[in-house]
Every structure is written in C-alpha cells, then in structure tokens.
C-alpha cells in the first residue's frame, strides 16, 4: 500500500502540474478574448459577437483566402465587432490572427503591405487605408475594417486598431531575420517573408525577398534559408537542374568571396546567386547580371555577419526531410 | 529573354507530354485568333470554351491569382496559352490586383481579366471598382463579379444590381457575374432564373466531391446562358507527395472539365510547378480510367492519412497517448499545410506524458482504428520530427 502511494505521488504531482499548465494556457486565451472585448475606443463598444476560428473552419471567415495563412503557422483567429454608440448601424470588425511566430505574423502582413502603403503607428508595423488598418505585433496579425451606412472613417478605425494592439503581448520587436536582407538601396516596405516557394520556385522552400535598386534598375534580392549547407547545396543544384531543363546554361564565376552563379532565368531575367553556409543569397530581375554584383556582396556580408551571431534556424519554417514511411491506403 | 522563357516551355517535360497527347478533346480545339493564340509556345495546345452568353472564348484552365507571389508566374501561364485570369479586390488587400496589373504589361490584349468586389453600400462598391481598375492599370475588366454571395437576396439586392448594371453600362466591365462559395445550387438557380438576366456568369465551388445537386444546377444555369467557371477544384488541395505516386491534381481538374457546362477551372498557381502542372491539363483533358482510379485512391489516401479524430484508439492505449492531436501535428507538417512551425506549435501543446514519446508500440491502437491508420508508424514519425 505504502509503495503504491510512493508510486502515485509523482504522478499526482505531475498531473497537477499538467492541469496548472493547461489552466494557465487556457487562462491566457480567455484573457486575450476578454481583453479584446474591452478594447473598444471611446464612443464604441464591443457587440459581444466574438467568434474563434481554427484551421478546420477558417474558410467560414475568409473563404478562398484561408490557404494563404496556413504555411505561416496559423493557429486561430478571434473575430469580433464594435458598434458606434451614436449610430449602431456603423460597425468596425476586427480579426486577430494568431500565427506560429513573430516572423510568421510578419510574413502574412507582408503579403498585404506594399511600397505604397501608408504606414501608421500601430503594432510593430501597420498601415491603413480610408476604412481599414492592418498591423502585426508579436505573433499576431490584425485586420480592422469599418462597415456601415455613414461610413466610419480612418478616424474611427485607427483608435480601434490601437486599442486592439494594447491587448496583445508587449513585444514590439521586428523579427531579427529581417536584418538578413538589408541593403543600402533597399526599397522601403518591400521586405517579404515566404514560408514556401520563394520566387515561385518549389525548390526554394523558405526565405526573404525585397526590392532594391542596382544600376538604376529596380531588382529583387533574396535570401533562401535551408536547414544545412548540404540542403542549401541541394536546393542550388535543383535550381541548376531546372535551368538546364529550360535550356539555360548557368555560368559559374569567381567573385570576391567564393563562386557565384550567373544565369538568364526564364522568369526573372538576369540572376546572380551564391551559397553562404546554409543560405543562398541572390539578386534577380537584372537587365545585366553584372549590375547586381555589389548588391550580392552586400547581401553576403549581411548573411555572414548573421551566421557569426548564430541566428536560430528553428524560427524559419524550414521543411523537414521527406519521410521514408508511407501511410496506408 | 522571351527566347529563354519559350525555350523553357518548349523543353519542359510537361510540354513534351502535351505534344504527345496532341489535344485529344475534339470539342475543345484551339480557337484561331482568340486571346492568347499569339503567345502559345510550340508544343502546347490550349483548349478553349465559350463562357456562356458572354461569348468570350476562354482557356479551360485559367489562373486563380490569390497567392501568386510574382508577376513572372502569371506571365509564365500566359506564355503557355492561358488567356483568363481571376483576381479580387480583397486578395492581399489589393496587392494581387497590382501584381496582375504588372503582369498584364504587354499581355492585356491577349488575356481576359476578371476581378471581384465585396458587397457594400453603393458608394463603397463604386469606389472599390475604381480602385480595382486603378490597381489593375486597365480601363475596363472583362468580368466584374460580386464576391461571395450565399443567399438569394444577395443576387436580387437592388443596390448591388444597380451598381453592377451601371458598371457594365459605363464600360468599366464588359460582363458581370457573381461568385459562390456555399449554397451553390440555390445560388446558381437564383442567377439562372433571374427574369432580367442581369448577371452573365457564376464562379462556383465545384469538384469531384461536390454534391450531385450542384452538377444539376450547373447544367440548368448553363442552359440559361450563364457562363460557369469552377473554383476549389482540388477539394482541399492536399499535398500528395506523402501518398506515394498519386498525383491527383491534374485528375481533379480533368474531372471538373468533363462537365461541358463548365467553361473553365481556375486553380491557384503560386509556383512555376503549379503553372506547368495545371496548364498541361489543356493538352490531355480526357478523364481516363487511370484518373478515376487516382481520384479514388486519393480519397482513400486522404481518408486514412487524415485522422478522423474519433479517439477510439486512445481508449485502447495503455498510455493514453493523445494520438489524434499528434496526428493533427503531423498533418500540419506533412499535409497540404506544409508548415513545420504550425506542426511544432501544435505538438508543443501536447503534454509529454501523452505525447508520441510515451508510445510503447503495443499496436492496440492500430487494431482499434476504424480507418486503418498505421498509428505506430505515425507515432514514430512524430518522434522523429518533433523530438
């Protein structure tokens, strides 16, 4: 009997611990929803119509667009509405998307924002149009939109967006990974994070892109992130194979630090690319490949610097090696 | 540069497949002089159908623009003969229309452009239409659609009808239509029974898993002259690489295109491989017995690969391992979601005591699974992936 109690005690402690962890986790979720309900700015109130959608029913909220979110570690979205105290017909809808990480939240955000978006001071970064605002903060991406007959304007939407932001975690840091793609001629607000098919090529699984200027031309710079230098080499080899199958002959040339590949890409005109550790850095859409050499060197220097500081790889959504096992069926 | 792109198209393996098949679908022969005809690379045989009473001869494969990251991908599709592209004002907050606008440089006279705007007040919808044309950098679109209508009142809403009729009259849109994600049959009937025959087209969810009632409603609509375009043709679009040699995506497209009442399907094309795979269907549209088998196998594969979460296995597990949640994590890593971060985040929420690490390989779970899931293998895979 005594020995049974001895055996049970650690299990009881463990079970209690698990329960506490669960309670704390659910408590946080409830706290977020409760916080959002009270996040209305002056003159507005939450309608109480709060809904949560997960991966299985996201399409009910944003049918057609849902698949955009899944590669970015989508966990759930909390949707809620606010109505104007003076005119209940006017409403503001907020959607708070919980993504896998800060980088994932940025990735989704970067799909919506472009160089002409008007940035506003909300969240880590946000932008607004006449009747809507979008921003990201921590691992959350948020859309706030106005609806109604009298057309509530940005004057109403922005305070609402700020009120929502206040409820989210305090972390307002941008993802460190964005530093990888910083160059002197970068076009502001063009950095994007892709969780799959960078540049539309399946073999470039995860990475960052941005626009920059090279020799007077607007070009695209990119950093592809792979798990190891071996898989980075394999990705480059697959690119080379693709080019050869397209009847394009890649040229390898020496550059300041190692070899670089010069190609006339079927889709992206002149492309320069080289491997740096587990990453590939490159410049695309070059009218003349040589125009991009300086940019490539800048990118390489950035990546080398980051590698020295040991940027954690797990934060990138790098796919796993294929499973040898096959499911039944 | 053009030479390179065309060389790529000419020498791609799918190009060779299409050349070999030679466009066996007699009713869908290329239409000389139709948009896209000049851009057809050698070896590619685009097929066209008429989009109802609009009279537009569109390729049976169009581009769904939602997730496409770069105009170059659209242009690769145009170069393969595709002459129909479908975007929406809300896609990527207008960025999609901007990307399409960039892609149309040099292609506008070869490609039919369709977009959609969400219902709103009359002023809001008029403003959205102007924004769409601005971002697309066009004076008009070929098709302006009322986005996501699921109740009959949406079809007959006076304000919507006024704004859309006005857009057509003013030449902002050559034709107008509606898009339907759910309640498909009722919406198709609502449009086709409209005494004023206002809307010309319906973009509708349609795939090999659709209810037979949808097929019948499509037929009624087509007979009424409504142009039908199919979306969500992949029934979820799960990543099939884990299913061995099953390649269901082309078969799923072919299944939809067997219905002659459907003018085109618009699969999303967010990578070059999607462009190649989807456009290749134009050259080999006959649904073969092999395709039928593929779809059957695909259904079965999905059924067993994707845990139904009935938890019968857990009742037999001596360790009470949370098998269904572990399977869900694996699905995010290996299925169509293709998201390791989501998979890890999901798996992290599972207490260690009931995680895959607790599995003792007793196989009782597999015996209890009514769907034949190889649970032991799945648990091993989870340990390998998430350890």
What key attributes describe this structure?
heterodimer; A: 329 residues; alpha+beta; Protein Transport Mog1p, Chain A; 2 domains; eight-stranded antiparallel β-sheet; 7 helices; 31% helix; elongated; disordered C terminus; B: 387 residues; alpha/beta; TIM Barrel; eight-stranded parallel β-sheet; two-stranded antiparallel ribbon; 17 helices; disordered N terminus
List the helices and strands and how they pair.
The complex is a heterodimer of chains A (329) and B (387).
Chain A: H1 2-37, E1 44-46, E2 51-53, H2 58-62, H3 66-69, E3 76-84, E4 91-98, H4 102-112, E5 119-120, E6 125-128, E7 132-137, E8 140-147, H5 154-167, E9 192-194, E10 207-214, E11 217-225, H6 229-245, E12 251-255, E13 258-265, E14 269-276, E15 279-286, H7 293-308
Antiparallel strand pairs in A: 1-3, 2-3, 3-4, 4-8, 5-6, 6-7, 7-8, 9-10, 10-11, 11-15, 12-13, 13-14, 14-15
Chain B: H1 2-11, H2 13-21, E1 48-50, E2 57-59, E3 63-64, H3 71-79, E4 84-86, H4 95-103, E5 112-117, H5 122-136, E6 141-146, H6 152-156, H7 158-169, E7 173-180, H8 184-192, E8 201-205, H9 212-223, E9 227-231, H10 248-257, E10 264-265, H11 272-280, H12 289-305, H13 312-316, H14 323-334, H15 340-348, H16 364-368, H17 375-386
Parallel strand pairs in B: 3-4, 4-5, 5-6, 6-7, 7-8, 8-9, 9-10
Antiparallel strand pairs in B: 1-2
Helix pairs in contact in B: 3-4, 3-11, 5-7, 8-9, 10-12, 14-15, 14-17
In helices, the fraction of residues of chain B equals 40-55%
Corresponding CATH architecture of the largest domain in chain B: Alpha-Beta Barrel
Write out the CATH superfamily name of the largest domain in chain B.
NADP-dependent oxidoreductase domain
Going by CATH, the homologous superfamily of the largest domain in chain A would be TM1622-like
Q: State the order of secondary-structure elements of chain B, H for helix, E for strand.
A: HHEEEHEHEHEHHEHEHEHEHHHHHHH
CATH architecture of the largest domain in chain A: 3-Layer(aba) Sandwich
Segments of chain B where pLDDT lies below 50 for 5+ residues? 1-34, 36-40
Tell me the β content of chain B: 5-15%
**CATH fold title of the largest domain in chain A:** Protein Transport Mog1p, Chain A
Mean pLDDT of chain A: 84
Task: Considering residues with a beta carbon less than 8 A from a beta carbon on another chain, report the largest interface and each chain's count.
Answer: A-B, 64 and 75 residues
Distance between the termini of chain B: 47 Å
Span between termini of chain A: 49 Å
The tally of structural domains of chain B comes to: 2
- Please give the domain count of chain A: 2
Radius of gyration of chain B: 23 Å
Strand element count of chain A: 15
Oligomeric status of the shown chains? heterodimer
Number of helices of chain A: 7
Q: Beta-strand percentage of chain A?
A: 25-35%
Radius of gyration of chain A: 24 Å
């Amino acid at each position: 009997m005594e020995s049974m109690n001895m055996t049970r005690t650690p299990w009881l402690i463990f079970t209690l611990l698990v329960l506490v962890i669960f309670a704390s986790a659910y408590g946080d979720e409830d706290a977020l929803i409760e916080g959002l309900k009270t996040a209305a700015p002056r003159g507005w109130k939450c309608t109480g119509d709060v809904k949560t959608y997960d991966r299985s029913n996201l399409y009910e909220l944003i049918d057609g667009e849902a698949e955009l979110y899944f590669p970015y570690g989508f966990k759930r979205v909390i949707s809620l509405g606010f109505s104007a105290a003076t005119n209940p017909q006017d409403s503001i809808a907020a959607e708070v998307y919980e993504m896998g990480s800060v980088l994932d939240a940025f990735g989704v955000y970067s799909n919506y924002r472009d160089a002409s978006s008007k940035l506003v001071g909300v969240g880590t970064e946000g932008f607004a149009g006449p009747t809507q605002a979008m921003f990201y903060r921590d691992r959350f991406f948020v859309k706030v939109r106005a609806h109604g007959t009298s057309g509530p304007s940005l004057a109403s939407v922005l305070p609402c967006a700020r009120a929502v932001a206040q409820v989210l975690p305090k972390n307002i840091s941008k993802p460190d990974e964005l530093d990888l793609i910083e160059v002197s001629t970068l076009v502001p607000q063009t950095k994007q994070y892709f969780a799959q098919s960078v540049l539309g090529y399946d073999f470039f699984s995860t990475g960052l892109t941005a626009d920059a200027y090279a020799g007077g031309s607007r070009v695209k710079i990119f950093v592809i992130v792979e798990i190891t230098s071996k898989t980075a080499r394999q990705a480059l080899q697959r690119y080379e194979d693709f080019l050869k199958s397209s009847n394009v002959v890649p040229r390898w040339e020496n550059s300041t630090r190692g070899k670089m590949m010069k190609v006339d890409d079927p889709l992206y005109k002149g492309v320069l690319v080289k491997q740096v550790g587990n990453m590939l850095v490159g410049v695309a859409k070059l009218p003349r490949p040589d125009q991009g050499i300086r940019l490539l060197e800048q990118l390489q220097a950035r990546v080398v610097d980051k590698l020295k500081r040991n940027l954690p790889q797990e934060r990138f959504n790098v796919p796993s090696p294929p499973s040898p096992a096959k499911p039944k069926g | 540069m053009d030479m390179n792109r065309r060389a790529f198209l000419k020498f791609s393996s799918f190009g060779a497949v299409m050349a070999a098949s030679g466009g066996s679908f007699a009713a869908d022969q290329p239409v000389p002089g139709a948009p896209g005809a000049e851009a057809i690379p050698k070896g590619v045989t685009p097929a066209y159908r008429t989009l109802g009473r609009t009279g537009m001869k569109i390729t049976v494969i169009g581009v769904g623009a939602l997730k496409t990251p770069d105009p170059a991908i659209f242009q690769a599709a145009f170069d393969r003969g595709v002459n129909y592209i479908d975007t929406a004002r809300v896609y990527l907050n207008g960025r999609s229309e901007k990307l399409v606008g960039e892609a149309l440089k040099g292609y506008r006279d070869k490609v039919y452009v369709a977009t959609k705007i969400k219902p709103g007040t009359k002023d809001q919808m008029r403003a959205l239409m102007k924004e769409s044309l601005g971002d697309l950098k066009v004076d008009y679109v070929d098709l302006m659609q009322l986005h996501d209508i699921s109740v009959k009142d949406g079809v007959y809403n006076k304000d919507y009808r006024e704004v859309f009729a006005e857009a057509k009259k003013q030449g902002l849109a050559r034709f107008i239509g509606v898009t339907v994600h759910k309640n498909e049959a009722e919406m198709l009937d609502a449009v086709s029974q409209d005494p004023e025959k206002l809307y010309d087209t319906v973009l509708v969810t349609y795939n090999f898993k659709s209810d037979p009632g949808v097929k019948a409603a499509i037929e009624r609509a087509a007979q009424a002259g409504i142009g039908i375009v199919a979306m969500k043709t992949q029934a979820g679009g799960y990543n099939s690489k884990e299913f061995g040699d099953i390649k269901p995506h082309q078969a799923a497209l072919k299944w939809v295109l067997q219905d002659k009442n459907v003018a085109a399907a618009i699969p999303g094309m967010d990578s070059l491989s999607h462009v190649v795979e989807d456009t290749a269907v134009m050259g080999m549209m006959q649904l073969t017995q092999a395709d039928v088998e593929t779809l059957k196998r695909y259904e079965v594969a999905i059924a067993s690969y994707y845990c139904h979460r009935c938890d019968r296995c857990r009742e037999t597990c001596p360790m009470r391992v949370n098998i269904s949640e572990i399977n869900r994590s694996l699905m995010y890593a290996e299925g169509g979601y293709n998201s390791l971060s989501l998979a890890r985040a999901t798996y992290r929420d599972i207490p260690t005591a009931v995680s895959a690490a607790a599995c003792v390989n007793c196989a009782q779970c597999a015996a209890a699974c009514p769907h034949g899931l190889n649970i032991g293998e799945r648990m091993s895979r989870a340990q390998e992936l998430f350890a």
